[in-house]
């Protein structure tokens, strides 16, 4: 259990002076609390004597008031020192976790769901904060308070104290058993909470799909099952607490019975005074808290260890894509060359790409055509090392891409995927996300090139219209064009378009491509598309099938290969266009006749 807390040592060392100050304040509070029954004993024994002056009990009363004031001040300061330290540790760990997650490669997110990561970043981190805050206080308070009370009790009357503490070993054994049970229960609770959080996140993120298939009831039932499982796990923990704490109270009550029996006998035989009995009773009542705090400490420490284990699982995961020690200074530029590249996804028996060799001259435009699953997107992801091809396969300007820093390498790419992700911000902020410092003129240029200028009247607040989560208020074509404008804003040296115009109509696509050809003159562009009209103006075209390059050349060269995949697709698309044109003409003639 405690091995998990080793990872917290750097944080604890950073705030060691705060913890030391908090511990000192806590010891002062405990000592003051233990002293008060001594003065209660003095006051009672003075009163019981029958002959006393009022000033004789004023002195202990004044001291008790001063001790109470000292306790209040001490409690304020230990809370200030320890709780602020634990809150800072919480913030630092959350930042560390978030930063580490951002460093992870794509494979990490295929294995870990968003909901589970959110649960770790919120629920688990909060539990660690409780362990470094109140859990730490309960541990220190329990140790020092118990030690001080036992010393005071034995100093009062050793024989009676020995009888009174008989139930304590049984309480200790129960605490140890309780700790093991709580650790297992809490680990189960956290795992279920992660699944519950993931179901909620997926349902809300995919609410369009849920509603379009009328699957609200299905997801409600799925959530209800996990929620019930979570509730049952929590109730198991509650039942454990429900047995433990009353039983501790019962054992404490036995100590009180033993005190009355043996303490009363000592008073009868003049071995104790009535004040001593009252002081001993006060100590027993005070001893209940350390006993209870022992259970609380075990609980919070076990929970903290379980949460730390879950956090450490993430922090100990290294990114799949690492920077090499052979680092090349400067930004990569020049021809792109792929040499004998094979790539297989983890857990897959089928290679996504097989023996790919390709050269993309600087400032040229490459088009890629292929069936679904032929490896087009995989090839694009390998260029900026979103996937790692390993050394000796992808070169830029004759230098292995693995030798460039990841930030320097990726900064020269602008990527527009088919499924465009937009943030819950305005259209303007989504476009400026990549280049917040561009001037108004450049902003107007990129929205014009992306074909968004014609849609501006459709946005209620113009470019300041908020698009909602993941761009839910925009159409598929509008989202793709916002993503294209975002990529163009940084004026990348290499632009990768992964079927980025699939959701726009042919006329809009033609206008965008025409503007794009002017914009990208002198810069490298790679376009993946299923439309021949998109690829015909590129300098070079490759056709992928089953992860292999089966055709390559210009549009004219590939059209000349009548039996090739490219020519067949071109013929089918031409036939489709002619059919649509004929239907449109027939509809117009019908309208004229009816008129």
Protein architecture, described:
With 595 residues, the protein is α/β, with parallel strands linked by helices. It has two domains: 2-315, Up-down Bundle (ABC transporter transmembrane region fold); 336-564, Rossmann fold, CATH 3.40.50.300. Helices cover 64% and strands 9% of the residues. The protein has 19 helices and ten strands. The strands form two sheets. The protein has a six-stranded mixed beta sheet with strand order 6-7-8-3-9-10, with helices on both faces. A hairpin with a 2-residue loop joins β9 (540-545) and β10. α7 (168-205) runs parallel beside α10 and α14 (440-449) packs across α15 (476-489). The longest helix has 53 residues, at 216-268. The chain is elongated, with a radius of gyration of 37 Å. The model has no long low-confidence stretch (mean pLDDT 84).
Rounded radius of gyration (Å):
37 Å
Low-confidence blocks of residues: none
Number of helices: 19
CATH architecture of the largest domain: Up-down Bundle
What is the rounded distance between the termini?
85 Å
Main sheet? 6 strands, mixed
Give the helices and strands as they follow along the chain.
HHHHHHHHHHEEEHEEHEHHHEHEHEEHH
* Percent of sequence in beta strands: 5-15%
Task: Tell me the number of structural domains.
Answer: 2
The helix/strand class is alpha/beta
């Amino acid at each position: 259990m405690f091995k998990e807390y080793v990872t917290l040592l750097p944080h604890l060392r950073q705030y060691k002076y705060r913890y030391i100050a908090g511990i000192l304040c806590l010891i002062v509070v405990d000592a003051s609390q233990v002293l008060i029954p001594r003065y209660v004993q003095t006051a009672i024994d003075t009163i019981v004597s029958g002959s006393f002056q009022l000033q004789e009990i004023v002195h202990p009363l004044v001291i008790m008031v001063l001790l109470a004031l000292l306790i209040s001040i001490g409690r304020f300061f230990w809370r200030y020192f320890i709780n602020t330290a634990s809150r800072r540790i919480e913030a630092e760990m959350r930042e560390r976790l978030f930063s580490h997650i951002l460093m992870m490669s794509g494979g990490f997110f295929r294995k870990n769901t968003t909901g589970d990561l959110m649960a770790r970043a919120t629920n688990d981190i909060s539990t660690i904060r409780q362990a470094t805050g109140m859990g730490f206080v309960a541990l220190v308070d329990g140790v020092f308070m118990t030690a001080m009370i036992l010393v005071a009790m034995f100093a009062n009357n050793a024989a009676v104290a020995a009888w009174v503490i008989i139930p304590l070993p049984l309480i200790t054994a129960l605490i140890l058993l309780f700790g093991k049970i709580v650790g297992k229960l809490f680990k189960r609770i956290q795992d279920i909470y992660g699944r519950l959080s993931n179901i909620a996140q997926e349902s809300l993120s995919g609410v369009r799909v849920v509603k379009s298939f009328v699957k609200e009831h299905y997801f409600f039932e799925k959530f209800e099952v996990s929620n019930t499982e979570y509730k049952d796990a929590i109730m198991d923990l509650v039942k454990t607490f429900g047995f433990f704490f009353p039983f501790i109270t019962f054992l404490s009550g036995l100590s009180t019975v033993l005190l009355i029996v043996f303490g009363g006998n000592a008073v009868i035989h003049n071995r104790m005074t009535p004040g001593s009995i009252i002081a001993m009773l006060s100590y027993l009542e005070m001893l209940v808290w350390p006993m209870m705090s022992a259970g609380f400490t075990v609980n919070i420490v076990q929970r903290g260890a379980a949460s730390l284990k879950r956090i450490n699982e993430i922090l100990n995961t290294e990114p799949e894509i690492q920077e090499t020690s052979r680092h090349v200074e400067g930004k990569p530029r020049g021809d792109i060359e792929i040499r004998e590249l094979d790539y297989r996804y983890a857990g897959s028996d089928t290679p996504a790409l097989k023996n790919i060799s390709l050269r993309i001259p600087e400032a040229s435009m490459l088009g890629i055509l292929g069936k679904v699953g032929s490896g087009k997107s995989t090839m694009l992801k390998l260029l900026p090392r979103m996937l790692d091809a390993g050394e000796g396969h992808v070169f830029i300007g004759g230098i292995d891409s693995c030798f460039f820093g990841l930030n320097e390498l990726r900064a020269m790419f602008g990527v527009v995927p088919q499924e465009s992700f937009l943030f819950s911000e305005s259209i303007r902020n989504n476009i400026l996300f990549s280049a917040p410092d561009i001037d108004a003129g450049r902003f107007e240029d990129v929205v014009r090139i992306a074909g968004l200028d014609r849609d501006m009247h459709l946005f209620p607040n113009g470019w300041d219209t908020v698009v909602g989560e993941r761009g839910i208020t925009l159409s598929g074509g509008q989202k793709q064009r916002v993503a294209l404008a975002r990529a163009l804003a940084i004026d990348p040296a290499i632009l990768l378009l992964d079927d980025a115009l699939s959701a726009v109509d042919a006329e809009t696509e033609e206008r965008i491509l025409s503007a794009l050809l002017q914009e990208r003159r002198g810069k490298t562009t790679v376009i993946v598309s299923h439309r021949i009209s998109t690829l015909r103006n590129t300098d070079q075209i490759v056709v992928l099938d089953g992860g292999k390059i089966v055709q390559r050349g210009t549009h004219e060269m590939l059209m000349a290969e009548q039996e090739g995949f490219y020519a067949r697709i071109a013929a089918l698309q031409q036939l489709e266009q002619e059919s649509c044109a004929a239907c449109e003409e027939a509809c117009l003639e019908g309208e004229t006749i009816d008129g």
